[in-house]
Design brief:
8 helices, binds 3-methylbut-3-enyl trihydrogen diphosphate, binds magnesium ion
Length: about 250
């Protein structure tokens, strides 16, 4: 049971995570529990996406990265992949006016070129329509996998070295970061994973070096605004040390 004390703490809007990543997991188990087809879980999960995007924007989160489809998810049954692509297309079409109205810029990380052509077309329209919005970036991780992203970055850098555009000594951590799909974006401050699994499943592995991680037992379709806010409060109580000593235990001042 949650203590009343933690529920009474108010959320500080000044110290929200700037970049929040969510591994939206548990749609299949949500459906299974109800003896429904897995696709019904994905459908219900889309409603959660809508409500969490809305609350994130209302609170003033700067960047929200949603893990929607991994490079490994292509290996799921064809019928499920097809349904996921159809739901993705529907979402991107139905929400684009809302994104526009709410000043949300949509961005894609991952292998956009692997998505079905009709989905790519709708994504491009949405990207174009929202490109000048500046209140929140909504990053959709689609056909995304960290290992593929890093492999791709290594290839890009190797080509530049081969063409003498750069020297191996120019390789720095920042240079690597700037060849990832997330390029100039700040690293995620907080990553939430739903459905109780304790793993990253190939999500932002380079960028998550110092991210705070929160595992929720809730299945994604049941994930609520209230729980979301409780997680943000939990994040605000944490001491992010980045390998240094805590401010409160440091003697230098
Ligand atoms: C997350 O839910 C959605 C995607 C990975 C596309 P799952 O479909 O992985 O649901 P579980 O983990 O089987 O319950
Ligand atoms: C991670 O969930 C990918 C997404 C949420 C899109 P999975 O369900 O694919 O991960 P595993 O297989 O449980 O690690
Ligand atoms: Mg899963």
């Amino acid at each position: 049971m949650k203590s009343n004390a933690s529920q009474n703490v108010t959320l500080n809007l000044q110290t929200l995570p700037f970049h929040l990543g969510i591994i939206m997991d548990g749609n299949g188990r949500w459906a299974k529990k109800r003896l429904l087809n897995r696709v019904k879980g994905h459908e219900k999960g889309t409603q959660t996406v809508r409500s969490i995007v809305t609350v994130a924007r209302e609170l003033g989160i700067g960047m929200l990265t949603l893990y929607a489809f991994s490079t490994e998810n292509w290996a799921r049954p064809k019928i499920e992949v097809k349904a996921l692509m159809m739901l993705l297309k529907k979402f991107i079409v139905s929400e684009r006016e809302v994104f526009s109205k709410n000043d949300i810029r949509v961005n894609i990380i991952g292998q956009k070129h692997r998505l079905p052509k009709d989905v790519q077309k709708e994504i491009d329209i949405t990207l174009d329509l929202t490109k000048n919005n500046d209140k929140m970036v909504l990053n959709l991780a689609l056909s995304y996998g960290s290992r593929e992203e890093i492999t791709n970055a290594v290839k890009l850098i190797a080509k530049k070295i081969k063409s003498k555009e750069m020297d191996p000594n120019d390789i720095t951590q920042d240079l690597i970061s700037n060849h990832l799909y997330t390029k100039t974006m700040p690293d995620p401050d907080l990553i939430i994973r739903t459905s109780g699994e304790n793993r990253l499943s190939n999500f932002l592995m380079w960028q998550a070096a110092y991210s705070e991680i929160y595992i929720s037992e809730t299945l994604w379709p049941d994930f609520s605004k209230d729980e979301f806010i409780e997680i943000l409060k939990n994040y605000q109580k944490r001491d992010r040390r980045f390998g240094k000593v805590s401010c409160s235990t440091s003697n230098d001042g």
